[in-house]
Amino acid sequence: MSGRADSETPPEAAQGPVEPVQDAEGPEDAEDAQDPEDAEDDGSTDDGEDDGQDDAEDDGDPLEEARRARWTAAGTGGLLAAVGTAASVLRAAGTAPALVPAAYALGAAVCAGAAVLGSRGRTRRALWLLVGGVTVMALGDQFD
């Protein structure tokens, strides 16, 4: 069985469907309460019609979400690695102490590792590596 260890079905969900509890009001009272003429206008424009949006957004397809998470982690890691490398080269060409470009280069390397992990599906670890890489770059910038 794949998945997390704590992903079992909760006991109340395993018992089966629960019958809805009807309010003390009768069905005729419920119809009166939902009369469109008596309802206050709350400014919403929901008229119950389909607005043509993709159903994949509403359903939350797990495969699509995983694919999007991988692409996001890999793209963000690659972008931050490129930016860190560029900053390292620019700081090395300037008058900054040697520690500053080294910190940018180290942060870029960590972000590149996060991009690799993200492309392989390890998105949580990639997120933490991205945070660590950006933190190293920010701390290195403080030495300037």
Structure description:
- The protein is mainly α.
- The chain has a domain at 64-141.
- Helix content is 61%, strand content 0%.
- The protein contains six helices and no strands.
- It has helices at residues 11-14, 27-33, 55-59, 62-93, 99-119, 123-141.
- Helix 4 packs antiparallel against helix 5, helix 4 packs parallel to helix 6 (123-141) and helix 5 (99-119) packs antiparallel against helix 6.
- The longest helix has 32 residues, at 62-93.
- The radius of gyration is 26 Å and the shape is elongated.
- The protein starts with 10 loop residues before the first helix and ends with a helix.
How is the secondary structure organized here?
Layout: H1 11-14, H2 27-33, H3 55-59, H4 62-93, H5 99-119, H6 123-141
Helix pairs in contact: 4-5, 4-6, 5-6
